Every structure is written in C-alpha cells, then in structure tokens.
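Recap slide: Nonspecific acid phosphatase, sequence and predicted structure.
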Amino acid sequence: MFERLKSLWVIGTTVGALAFLVPSLAIAQSDPLPSWNDTAPKAAIVEFVDKVSKEGSPDFVPEPERIAVFDNDGTLWIEQPMYVQLAFALDRVKAEAPSHPEWATTQPFQAVLEGDMKALTAAGEKGLLELIMATHAGMTTAQFEKIASEWIATARDPRFKKPYTELVYQPMLELLAYLRANGFKTFIVSGGGIEFMRPWTEKVYGVPPEQVVGSSIKTKFAMKDGAPTLFRLPEVNFIDDKAGKPVGIQEHIGRRPIAAFGNSDGDLEMLQWTTLAEGPRFGLIVHHTDAEREYAYDRKSEFGHLDLALDAAAINKWTVVDMKADWKQIFPGN
C-alpha cells in the first residue's frame, strides 16, 4: 500500500561540497566511475556513453538530445525504512501537535503521535492524505521551503544516525557527473514532492531546481500585505509516479530521454517511455541487495517495491545493478 502512496508524501553540508567536487574529480581520474566494480553494469554504462557522445559514431546523439532522467528515492538516496518525505510528514505532525490538541484523539494523527504504524496503515489513503495536507499545505511556498530546508539539514536517519543528504549513493553521484561531463543534461523525475526536493538537489546532486520533476499540490498567486505570494492549497495538482512520470517528463522537459535510471515499479513506465523507441537507449535499475551496507529488498517491500520492473528488465535488456556485487561503496566516505 505504501508504494501506491509514495507520491502522496510529496504533495505537498558536507555532502553538498562533495557533490560539487565530483565532476572535477571524475574528469581528473582515468576511471570516471571509481566506486563501481569492473562488472557488466559499469561496462554497459561506459559503452553507451561512448557511442552516443563520440562524433562519427553511428549512434551519435546531438548534445541537446542527451537527456537522462533519474528517480530519487532508492535510486539516488536511501528510501528505507520509509520514504524520506514520509518521515518529514510524520515529524511535522509531531511538531505541530501542541497547536492541535484534538489530534491526540483523532486518527490518523493519533497513530502518528503514538507511533502506531499499524493504525496508520489502517487509515489508508484517505488518512494519509489528511496528514499530507495538514503538513504540506496552508502556507506560502517560501514558508514551506524554509520548513523543508531546516528539516533536511537537521533530521537524522534512524539506522545510520546521519543526515539524509549524506545517505546518497556515491556511485550515482559519480554517474551523474560522468554523464554531465559527456554532454548530458540530468533531470530528477520523482514521485517525491517537487517543492520538497528543489531546495537541496543542486547542492547534493548538482541538479538545479528547474531540472527537478515531481508531484505537486495546487498553488495560488495572491497579494498579501502588498507583497506577491504563492500559497499552497490543500488540493492535489499532479502525481509524478508510475504512468505519471512520462507525462511529467513531457510537460516539464519536452524531450524524450535517451537514458533512465530507477529502482522500483514506480519507475516502470518511465523506463518504458525512455527505452522502447528507436535509436540508442539505455535503462538501468538499482537492485537493493546489500543488507549489510544498506538494505536488501525488492518484490515484497512496501517501500521501493520492485517486481514488475525487475521482470521487465530481462525482457527489455535493461541493466540491473546488484548493489552488493557491483558497487565498491554505497555512501560517500564509507
């Protein structure tokens, strides 16, 4: 159920310095992907990039058409034990609870305050949508950006005890830099909230806010005390997940990507839209197989559910990354 609701969470630094250093480091080294083992996925990436970026190659793709799209949760950073933006929503309920004494006896807020995940799950989509609207709407875009930015700077992952922005995947940071060094434009296309991601993606991934595609709630322009403002309304605007991802790509980017990177069934349609067309195409799935360094999960996981897309990878000849076997390291600095 949680996989279906991934996009609802969105409705609504050390790592930064490292991310900006990655491009120059990658170019300076003979190996542009040093955190990748010399296995088939790395070879497939290098082969694809070489053939589409080398002038004179029969598969050469002009630079403006070299578009690569990346899912975020589980593809660029951690998504267990729950999506990061869901953790943000739950923390916001706890922070706002003193102003809402009625939440102590009202579901699904009571479940959040009591840490009752069973009751929270039982609340279903309707209940979780209530949480999202209570924590992501009813404020200006500037207010929401401030709240989200402060949270992402201070929140810590429960297992690794680190900021979430330090739990990004070093091999994927290198891949982003490698693609950009070879004329690609890199976009994030996530079920996560577009306004939740935009304040920090440039610092962490080198992806500016205008190259972030995500889910959104409706926003209204208004003059307030003589100043122009954008106000976040408690209404769904767009869900950028599953079949919504190709739509979001078309509406925000306007070009069909030639490379797509994901990790779950929520990315299936994006991979299909990118790869099932003429010309050189590349699709990659990050398969979480390393329980010791990160997590191992796929077909039975509520978060990052990977089932249909894993089967489709074999049929469509997408590259599947086995994190345990194909990555020398998972996070920066470890």
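The first strand starts at residue 67 and ends at 70.
Residues 9-28 have pLDDT under 50 and may be disordered.
(End of recap.)
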